[in-house]
Structure formats: structure tokens, C-alpha cells
Specification:
142 residues; alpha/beta; Rossmann fold
Length: 142
């Protein structure tokens, strides 16, 4: 298996930091490029919020996503690997599944758990969803 593009979902948790460390090690030996992605959702679809409050919430959530990516970018830059970062609006499970189906990535490296409101028994809910819906190899890092 030749690895050239690695997708690493990040959420600011220690688990995603470990996933980045693993991706860095693998990228260094395979000359792969890393794409760190943070997915964010604005509000529950069942809520009807509009006006200034909605704009403030939207901006706050987007800013938080960018801060998470800045931290990941710093870690990747210090390691001296080739990387990009992306902040994507949408449900993490769906966004990551769509990215995997794009066949742009050879491997996904992700933390076993993350910051989520729902916790799985053994794996985080997003990790569980990705493992059950994608079509490329996934390395789950504790």
C-alpha cells in the first residue's frame, strides 16, 4: 500500500493530538501529505434561531473550529511535514464519510474518542460511524 495522502480529523481532544502524532510519523517515512480536518455544526436542525444571535453563534463556532485547526497546524509545521487544514461545516460522520468516498485519501488516522455529546462504549460515536461507512483504511489511535 502506497500512502500519499492522509486524512486526520481533529477536534482538539488528546485523542486527535495522538492521531496527528501518528500521522506525522507515517508521513515522514512515506513522504505523504496530511490533511487535518475539523468538522463543525452550527445548531440543532430542530431549533429555529435567526437574527443577530444566530450570526454570533455561527461566528463563535467557526472561530472555535479555526482555533482547533491552528493548534493542529502548529503541531504539523513544527514536525516539518507537508500538510493542509480544512474547516468544514457539517456533521463529522457524514463529512468524513464523504471525504473518504472522494478517494482523495489513502488512509484516515483518527482518535478512538473525541469531544462528542454521545459516547460509545468502546469507540467514540464519530469513529464508530466512520468505521462502518467508509471505503478506505482507517487507523484508530488511542
Amino acid at each position: 500500500m502506497h500512502i500519499t495522502n492522509i486524512l486526520v480529523p481533529v477536534d482538539g481532544s488528546s485523542f486527535s493530538a495522538h492521531a496527528i502524532e501518528c500521522a506525522i510519523d507515517l508521513a515522514k517515512v512515506s513522504s505523504a501529505r496530511i490533511c487535518a480536518v475539523n468538522c463543525y455544526e452550527l445548531l440543532d436542525a430542530s431549533l429555529e434561531v435567526s437574527g443577530i444571535f444566530a450570526k454570533e453563534v455561527s461566528k463563535s463556532v467557526e472561530n472555535q473550529s479555526n482555533k482547533i485547526l491552528e493548534k493542529a497546524a502548529q503541531q504539523l509545521q513544527e514536525a516539518g511535514v507537508d500538510f493542509t487544514t480544512k474547516s468544514i461545516l457539517g456533521s463529522p460522520g457524514k463529512v468524513l464519510t464523504d471525504l473518504a468516498r472522494s478517494k482523495e485519501f489513502d488512509l484516515i488516522i483518527m482518535g478512538s474518542h473525541g469531544h462528542s455529546n454521545i459516547t460509545g462504549l468502546f469507540l467514540g460515536s464519530v469513529t464508530h460511524k466512520v468505521l462502518n461507512t467508509i471505503y478506505c483504511p482507517v487507523l484508530v489511535v488511542p
